[in-house]
Amino acid sequence: MNKSRILIVDDEAGNRGLVRRVLDPLGYEVIEACDGQEALALIAADRPDLVLLDLVMPRMDGYAVVQALKSDPNTRLIPVVMLTSQDQLSEKVRAVEFGVDDYLYKPFHVEELTARVHSLLALKRYTDELEHVSKVIEGIAEVVESRDRYTGNHCKRLGSYAVRVGRFLKLEQEDLDVLKLGGVLHDLGKIAVSDTILNKPGRLTPEEFELMKRHPQVGSDLLRNMRTLERVMPLVRHHHEKLDGTGYPDRIGGKEIPLLVRITSVVDVFDALHSRRPYKEPFDLERSLGILREEASKGWWDREVVEALDRTMHDGAGGELPPP
Predict the structure, then answer these.
(1) What's the CA gap between 46 and 36, in Å, rounded?
(2) Would you state the pLDDT for residue 149?
């Protein structure tokens, strides 16, 4: 098993040495940085499993380091322990608000530091395992999509459209991340649909369509016990629901359908209209949006989401989309 890698950040060499003398006998790989800038450079080169961070340092203080780490998706899950002589409650509260995972005062108790390090490293290993499983699921979803020779990059495009709409509606970054991942995973359940049905060059029979309609439930069942994908699961299960309750698989409607699901549903239909399918040529932008407006007027889709998609498509906001 690889050693856990711990970064000590402190401008006082004596303080770094003291912490090292506690951690070295425990078998950890310990590295040191004398200030925040050096710490960020070391983290960029080789991410540690835990950061023990001083607060008051030259060039870049502990708050700035935490802010940089927690705002970067690549480093936000690294646990950070603020190890400082600043014992005011206001400083501790501020550190927690910035995203610090734990806070210890100098001089520290060896037993307490050791216990906190063990606990946070155990949590980090668990988080890494969940993240690994999430990546495996994403890979499976991409393989599932590749089986359907007609949809191209449908899932990636759907995620891109959804993020555009989410930004227009001023959603938080966390919601945008869910929309993007929901786009990738929404058709995961097609793993249970045969290639014959997926690649049929024409419309499905009623019996075949009933089999196809099972994919939202299959996909959500695959994600059910994965807490890291808990917010994505409703997008996978309910992206074929309609506001009037006539969708599937659960026939929910109205306020029962969360906003992120309503966004995913609209952009899913839009991409189906705007791209080539086995039973149709792609409709142009205006016809695709026009059909969505008509269906919104029937009570199927969220009008605000449809109008937001219209605006983003005409404004060209959001950057390039994956190719069809």
Answers:
(1) 15
(2) 56
Q: From the candidates 124, 180, 190, 242, which is the catalytic residue?
A: 190
Task: Report whether 56 contacts 81 (CB < 8 A).
Answer: no
List phi, psi (to 5°) of 102: -155, 165
Put the strands of the sheet holding 80-84 in their side by side order. Answer: 29-33, 5-9, 50-53, 80-84, 102-105
d(CA 265, CA 15) in angstroms, rounded, equals 55
Identify the CA nearest to 267 among candidates 142, 155, 141, 147: 155
User: In what helix (H) or strand (E) does residue 11 lie, and over which residues does it extend?
Assistant: none
**Confidence at residue 324, expressed as pLDDT on a 0 to 100 scale:** 47
Backbone angles phi, psi at 280, to 5 degrees: -160, 155
Q: Which of the 8 DSSP states describes residue 50?
A: E
| Residue 242: active-site member | no
- Structure tokens belonging to residue 211: 């089999």
According to DSSP, the residues that pair with 7 across neighbouring strands are 31, 51
Amino acid symbol at 163: V
pLDDT at 129: 66
Whole-angstrom Cα distance, residue 133 to residue 45? 24
* pLDDT tens digits, 207-261: 999 999 999 999 998 888 777 788 999 999 999 999 999 999 999 999 999 999 9
Tokens of 113: 């530091």
Least confident of 21-35, 87-101, 157-171: 87-101
The conformational region for residue 99 under phi > 0 = left, psi -120 to 50 = alpha, else beta, is: left
d(CA 94, CA 123): 23
Residue that is written with structure tokens 């016990």 in the block: 225
Residue-wise pLDDT tens digits, 48-72: 999 999 988 888 888 899 999 988 8
User: Per the omega criterion (within 30 degrees of 0), is the bond before 258 cis?
Assistant: no
Measuring CA to CA, which residue among 245, 156, 247 is closest to residue 237? 247
In the chain, count of helices (H) and strands (E)? Answer: 14, 5
